Amino acid sequence: MSDYLKGAGFLTERERALLRQTGAPSPLALESTLRANTQYYERVLGKSRLQALLAALGSMITSEERNALKDVPSGDYPLGVDIDHAPARVTRTPVHEERDRIYHELQRLRSRGDQSPQAKERMRLLEEQLIKLVEEANRAA
């Protein structure tokens, strides 16, 4: 990384150290990181220094690489992801309840350590039931 950062000779050693912490192996990777975290880097580097850095990195990036940057979302994602949109919670259905009931019964039987033919047969049937239930749920999804 330090090789391409030399192309931005105006950076202080502190700024270079900060940019090295991103782990970006190329000018394209660093520019992508900076654009995905624009507000953060404006606070840390200052708006004018960030713009100068983006311009310096831009001169190091090929036109093919530049096209790849068109897909980078704009915004402030300090962790590199949009954390405002939590995944939807899964609604528990009767299938979930049945799966859990079978699983817990199977675990209970296994924890007893009963090796009798009746216990083994019951566990085998529960395992088959559980597999069938999961397969059906996967087909329905």
Query: For this entry, what is the oligomeric state of its chains?
Result: single chain
Report the sheet with the most strands, covering strand number, pairing sense and barrel closure.
none
Taken as a percent bin, the fraction of beta residues is: under 5%
Anisotropy-based shape: elongated
Mean pLDDT: 81
Number of helices: 8
Cα(first) to Cα(last) distance is 45 Å
Low-confidence runs: none
What order do the SSEs take from the amino end to the carboxyl end, as H and E? HHHHHHHH
Radius of gyration: 27 Å
Structural class: mainly alpha
Count every beta strand, where a strand is a DSSP E run of 2 or more residues. 0
Total of domains: 2
Helix content: 55-70%
Q: Descriptors for this entry?
A:
141 residues; 2 domains; 8 helices; 65% helix; elongated
